[in-house]
Amino acid sequence: MRYTSEDVGLLIKTTQYRHHRGLDASLAATGISLVQWSALREIERNPGASMHRLAELSFNSDQAFGTLTARLLRVGLIERFQGPGRVTHHRLTPRGTELLREGRKRVMKVLVLSFASLDEKERDMLGTLLAKLLT
Description:
With 135 residues, this protein is mostly helical.
């Protein structure tokens, strides 16, 4: 079968939508959403990153990420600390770290199931092709 660029774009978006719904449903049992879990993941992965950079990495606008971090602070999943000058950084609290770990298990189950119809070579090929698109 020949796929047009529109077909491929729609397949990528449909896969992403399916992942988002499945991940949100699985994470709901932990009391956090995919958006919140993604913010925790990026805060952990990128210590010292600016709010703007964390917003980009978690696919949020700066304003949305600011609102999100305020909520994560309120519920005790992250804390703020002063960096050099006027820079403010974030880090996970022990509770935030635990929710990130529990969420990661759930995320991996959803993703493994999602890609189960592909063998290792096909997953590698898909990853290579998607990475090529992003360069």
